[in-house]
Amino acid sequence: MSVSAKGETPNAKPGLSDLTRLPDARGHFGPYGGRFVSETLSFALEDLEKTYHSLRDDPDFQAEFDVDLAHYVGRPSPLYHAKRWSESLGGAQIWLKREDLNHTGAHKVNNTIGQALLAKRSGKPRVIAETGAGQHGVATATVAARLGLSCDIYMGAQDVERQKLNVYRMHLLGARVIPVESGTRTLKDAMNEALRDWVTNVDDTFYIIGTVAGPHPYPQLVRDFNAVTGREARRQSLEQIGRLPDALVACVGGGSNAIGLFYPFVEDEGVAMYGVEAGGDGVETGRHAAPLASNAPRGVLHGNRTYLMSDEAGQVSDTHSISAGLDYPGVGPEHALWKDVGRVEYVTANDKEVLEAFRELTRMEGIMPALESAHALAHAKVLAPTMGRDQHIVVNLSGRGDKDIMTVADIDGITF
Amino acid sequence: MNRIDQRFDELKRQGRKALIPYITAGDPGPEHTVGFMHALVEAGADVIELGVPFSDPMADGPVIQKACERALARGTRLVDLLDMVAEFRQSDTRTPVVLMGYLNPIERIGYAAFADRAAQAGVDGVLVVDMPPEEADEFGPILKQRDLAAIFLVAPTTSRGRAATICAHGEGYLYYVSLKGVTGAATLNAQDVAEHLAPLRELTRLPLCVGFGIRDGITAAEVAKVADGVIVGSALVNRIAEHADTPEVIAGELASVLSEMRTAMDA
């Protein structure tokens, strides 16, 4: 890795199969990723890396994971043909990968189940996590309850306000939710505070990171645990469509649900992929959370190098999104590389388009999506009419919208 | 010879230990920082660590987080710090200055451009909290070419193998983090520190300086018995916070905290 290469596309375009073999031994995805942490955490990360690499190909560990996914999460999740919505858009057929039907209502649980198994093997009695919309916090509190682990969740004070329902869910599950008042009081600040906790309590605490960012090996292991989504979707496409889809669409904040869907398709050249970032008020206004689509400068935050929204002086920028779960200035390092090599196209949907998609899917298919997932739907809405009726789009419906009802009601001027 | 090495040579000859204050540059306003630096030197500072304010100081506790917020609210940038050091150098050419902070502000300027300007301004060393030696293979040589010391942290959790790597890459001095946690979190245990420093002595001839958890003359003197230097940050930044509305008294406050430590260490 070199600084001079930071701003440039790698000389030789890696082959698609090379892309699936990353990260390298030091956690780099091309010029991105790595392990930029203060020294106190290095040993814990080395330890986690060793544990994970020894278990990754261990059939017993994988079997335990698969059993939990089947009987606790309820996998496989269906691939649902949204016929009525597809018909009304007048183009490609839209299929929804129903991660919203997972236990706890989002894709996040796939990863927390996996990391909880790692925590159990490490023997640490306490887990911590950061959360934005609260889905990862709920999924972490859930696995902690099940394993009898003590659990503290860091959540930006602004997000605690806008996601009250999930805060209460975490309380009911026995977790302590700690509102973070520093900085912008959102997801990035929650992650800062979780890292501060971890550096203090590293001997007895396992940090369950909720997205494909953070220091190595987190981007890799969170991807691997989420990839069950893409493996199922690939198999289901072959069964239900009779071939692979023409396009995949998923929302990208840190990027865990998108990586989960995309990763098993990376080598399938004919499958186009779209990562949809939070356009907020519109990328042109500067009030957004779209580091990739807005071509933000490269930078280092939370342990990895990636595209990072920051000002001229290198201070991390405020982000804006209707959706707490996407309100993050960075993005997983593997997405950064996929952008550079052109494997995935990163686009945005702004708040207004997202609300329209939210309402449309609810009214036409009887499925209420999370506002995060509605970003992916908003792009599918743009994409489908440009494609033929015999073409197929798989959209990751990464979470359900119950948690967002208050936000939408608020916009509608309704108070309960 | 780098000013840091010179200073530790002198101290060794005199049989004294280094007293290293840390302040966040630009707190409570950029116009005060150079004055504070001179006051610290007069009160007995041997090396000055100048904190680069950052929006997301992940390794810092609330005291230094708030210092960063005050400095950023007044628009303090890394390039302003370099100007401060240049101004400081107009009347102090002997006291080493180390910049301490996070990687992103440096990445925005670019490693080589930053190192050129830092060397020109009279900076002597750079400590990037979130850049362990494994990630420094590009930046390390760039600093070395300009005679800027790359200073690294060693923690209580650092394995012997890692410590050897860090010692091999480190220059200036080793910064031993006395406890697990963020800055300003707790008071250190001098006995525990002594036990961790002993194996490091076998690995390196670099001076071993200890930071985190040093609050007053007593803790400073205890650490000075086992280490080559004592680093004090939050105890000073606390005083700045207390008097942020009356900045004219801060230099005196900083001097009184530091003099107490100097006296206790030299006793």
TrEMBL record, chain B:
Transmembrane segments: none annotated. The active site is at E49 (proton acceptor), D60 (proton acceptor). Keywords: Amino-acid biosynthesis, Aromatic amino acid biosynthesis, Lyase, Tryptophan biosynthesis. It holds the Pfam family Trp_syntA. It catalyses: (1S,2R)-1-C-(indol-3-yl)glycerol 3-phosphate + L-serine = D-glyceraldehyde 3-phosphate + L-tryptophan + H2O. Coiled coil: none annotated. InterPro entries: Aldolase_TIM (IPR013785), RibuloseP-bd_barrel (IPR011060), Trp_synthase_alpha_AS (IPR018204), Trp_synthase_suA (IPR002028). Pathway: Amino-acid biosynthesis; L-tryptophan biosynthesis; L-tryptophan from chorismate: step 5/5. One of its GO terms (molecular function) is tryptophan synthase activity. The keyword Lyase applies. Its EC number is 4.2.1.20. The keyword Transport does not apply. It is an enzyme of class 4 (lyase). The alpha subunit is responsible for the aldol cleavage of indoleglycerol phosphate to indole and glyceraldehyde 3-phosphate. Tetramer of two alpha and two beta chains. Belongs to the TrpA family. This is Tryptophan synthase alpha chain. The lineage of its organism: Bacteria, Pseudomonadati, Pseudomonadota, Gammaproteobacteria, Oceanospirillales. The gene is trpA.
